Amino acid sequence: MVKMKKTQRNSNPYPHSDSNKRYQTYEYYMRKKFGGRVAKIPLDAGLSCPNIDAGAGCIYCSGRGSGDSVPMGLSLREQYDEGRAKLSSKWSTEKCIAYLQAHTNTYAPVNVLRGIYEEILTFPNLCGISIATRADCLGEDVCMLLREISERIPLTVELGLQSSSDTTARRICRGHTMADFEDGYDRLRQLVPKAEVCVHIIFGLPGESDEDMMNTVKKVAELAPEQVKIHLLHVIKDTPLGDEYLRGEYIPLERDRYISLVVDALKLLPPDTVICRLTGDGIAEDLLAPEYSKRKIAILNDIDKLMFATGATQGCNYKKI
Fold it and tell me: From CA 154, how far away is CA 95, in angstroms rounded?
């Protein structure tokens, strides 16, 4: 009998995977939920953000929220159709999730939000909606609207936490406290029980130690959202953070440290949480640092290698509260 060589894939003990990934990827989860690959199409509804309207804005924000890659000057339907066309050239799928990505997509009067959501519900091949927002923009009236939408189509609400530290929140001008985040999160859970929640965190924020970042991960693990996104902080041109970087006042995370932090984070998160992102995408020409972030696949591969080498799996150090 020929002895099979031990590989990352055939020796993977993690249950929510059919590959070498020792964490539950978004692609795997979509295939299990919808029976095949799903295209997630970013959209910009032209909404703003209370932080920007207050004259501040987070220090790393380019002014377009997280919607830098969304085409400008197009209607929602045109954005959706263009996104479908681009993704169809990469792989075959008919099922799509409309992702309201840019800025705060519950920050408007309910009648305005209803019009946006209802328009999206008419789009072809739609199997879900994902709405990016802030936890301090989830009033009861907004949550009741989200509840209506969640009764008609699978809904995910994405919340930018970034850090559980109020010191860091002030440093990055986030505009709300951890208590504010928890209030909005709890209201969403109570009033929109069918919605899945995705919490975003960022590694490499100014002044944060490894302990600070892991404390954020532990807090997220306590909240137990269905999904998590981990972002590497990008330094973008023409932002307050970019200015700090150019003055030598901010030093980005080194590559190996980032990879190690991600693996440590995955070990702390619940084993069934969906990991939607482990690094970020940005506009290459606007990126000041870190340069290695442009090589996203290489970063993901090295995360896989470190997990394999150390025997780590998602949730192996998770402690349920």
Answer: 13
| Residue 70 per-residue DSSP state | S
**Rounded CA gap, 130 and 159, in Å?**
11
- In degrees and rounded to multiples of 5, residue 24 shows phi and psi of -85, 105
Q: Taking a C-beta distance cutoff of 8 angstroms, is the pair 98, 130 a contact?
A: yes
Q: In this structure, what token pair is assigned to residue 221? A: 């693990």
pLDDT above 70 covers a percentage of the chain that reads 94
CB 123 within 8 A of CB 80: yes
Distance of alpha carbon 198 from the chain centroid:
7
- Spatial separation of the C-alpha atoms in residues 253 and 262, rounded to whole Å: 12
Q: Which amino acid is at 96?
A: C
Residue with tokens 């209370």: 50
Closest CA to 76 of 137, 108, 122, 107: 122
Which residues fall within 8 angstroms of residue 40, CB to CB, at 6 or more apart? 96, 97, 99, 130
Backbone φ and ψ of 197, nearest 5°: -115, 135
CA–CA gap between residue 152 and residue 175 (Å, rounded): 32
Single-letter amino acid code for the residue at 19: S
Distance CA 266, CA 316 (A): 8
Using only C-alpha atoms, the chain has a radius of gyration, in whole angstroms, of 19
Other Cβ atoms within 10 Å of 5 Cβ, number: 7
75: β partners: none
Helix (H, G, I), strand (E, B) or coil at 269: coil
Side-chain-side CA neighbours of residue 235 (13 Å): 22
* Encoded tokens for 298: 């290489």
Give the tens place of pLDDT for each residue, 261-307.
Answer: 999 999 999 999 999 999 877 677 899 999 999 999 999 999 999 99
CATH 1.20.140.10 fits 26-310, yes or no: no
Type of residue at 270: P
The number of helix segments (H) and strand segments (E) in the chain equals 11, 9
Report percent pLDDT > 90 for the chain: 82
Say how many residues make up the chain.
321
